[in-house]
Amino acid sequence: QDVLIVGGGQGGAQTAISLRQLGFEGSITIVGDEVELPYERPPLSKEYFASEKTFDRLHLRPAAYWQDKAVTLVSGETVVGLDPLAKTARTASGDSLSYGVLVWAAGGSPRRLTCDGANLAGVHAVRSRADIDAILGELPRVDRVVIVGGGYIGLEAAAVLRKLGKAVTLVEAQTRLLSRVAGPALSAFFEAEHRTHGVDIRLGQGVDRLEGDARISHVVLTGGEKLAADLVIVGVGITPNVAALERAGATATNGVDVDLRCRTSLSDVFAIGDCANQINAYAGGERTRIESVPSVSEQAATVARELTGQGRDHDALPWFWSNQYDLKLQTVGLSGGFDQEIVRGDPASRSFSVTYLRGGRIIAVDAVNAAKAFMRGRALVAGGAGVEALSD
Prior knowledge:
By secondary structure, the protein is of the alpha/beta class. It contains 8 helices and 26 strands.
């Protein structure tokens, strides 16, 4: 193939779409480990989990699109090895695929618990359609759910499960929710919201072990408390799927290292999405992995431009969103390393924003049910505005 894309998710699909939009006429094959057509992943923990959207509405394009655009989809297959000199990729089933350019968009795999009982039936991750379908299939027989992890995935799952009438206990090892991506003000707001909706939150607690006779029955915390559980959802981040690239000699630190054109250290091999570790101006010029649909879509466009002679560096402003109950959180920028946070508006009104600063410059904004504040925040972060801009 002229372009072989490894990963049939948002990044892989968007790379193929962008290539055709820019007039690329070469052959394109996407190899994905799921059997589905490429689909949106964020709704899995939101609308699809809540049965508010059928799966066909998550498809990025209908089946006819891929045929019309001459994009070959190889489903249910995993690339396990690369020969960068011969420019071939080896699949788990033993096939060898040659390429002119390879785009690695394999994302990541959910981190699993490593304690005793982690493999009991009824312990789930939230990453694929199969994960959600498995949970939904068990829910009619489930009353009590324990969620491990107080990030976006854990909180979104908690919100859906409370709507479905399940008793939910959320366990977070850190002393506040969303500690990796937000400041104390937003953490406190979402903790209060989830408690108001009946979620039992345990902060500063890890999981010592899971107990059950073949199927989960109890979660034992590091403090010794034993929580009854009919089902467990683990949302503690992902591990980048880059082992095959590392074995082939690619430079990899917390994902595979890429430059501003998304090129790895291997000739004619690009990487995008959750597994790509890229220097980012909005992270103070440090390498970081951005786990968001807007970011991977921009990286896909960067690769497509590079392969069609229109190359330019990837410099898109990161942004994210999360839906919980009737709350829409929109985030722009990266708040890591902030030294000041300013709350604008009244959290009690359930419509407010939090501005993060580092060295007097605005680096990120969280907006809750405040679309105008989010749009204003985009301009402030992109422009590197100072604190004085907040008085405008």
